[in-house]
Amino acid sequence: MPKTSRPFSLRREAHGPGIMGILNATPDSFHSPSRQATVDEAISNGISMIENGSQIIDIGGESTRPGSEPVTIREEIQRVIPIIQGLCDQIDNPQISIDTRNVEVARKAIQAGASMINDVSGLRDSAMKKLVLDTGVPVCIMHMLGDPKTMQSNPIYSNVVEEVCAELHQKASELIDAGHPSELICLDPGIGFGKTLEHNIELLKAHETLRGEHNLAILWGVSRKSMIGQITGHEQSEDRLYGTLGVAAYAQQQNIDWLRVHDVQAHTDLLSVMRKMD
User: Fold this and answer.
1) What is the reported pTM?
2) Residue 36, pLDDT above cutoff 90
């Protein structure tokens, strides 16, 4: 497979977070307003996200919310490929991330025009690592304890920061040692993926430790998650925007590289004002 001609650096230095817009091609994502009813609706929403300030569109065809059931690879492919193709047909060189833990889905997504892999399983499949190396695409490596169905049952760590960082650093080092540029790698601590509220807060505060010796880019996916609900008392994801924006403000202050969000316009406005006032 030829290397992609569109790699882009995931390091943003001191610019503050870039925005990765969430485009869920699933009927069961935890935040119901983010579900796309049709391919045309998904394409239209993806275009709107880009117009509103999203630098990357993250397209996923399998819900990985706590307790979710896996879908077949065939179904996942059928959900995401038409959206990727549609966005590529209507926008010049869009930066599209495929949110998947299945290598065959990632391979077909790249062939269809995706330019990044977002692997929630953290490159557990050696074939996914090989695909990243063969294509040269940027990659986000996320930490997840166990699998989506059971990850929140009773997450236990001796030291959550040490264990999460060690696992992610190992995966990143394997890529770098094999020749993949460090600026094409970002790490996601996996907020809510096998963590308690205390674990999540510890990991967010330990972002500099997570960067590691290679000074890797950091992505946070906290948008409207149960962590926000636990802090604010809002049980419904629809009521968690303001708390989510609080995390975004903290991310701007800490020079986090990327935020994966549902509400692109709200985050663009918040970050624009904060940068102007800096």
Assistant:
1) 0.92
2) no
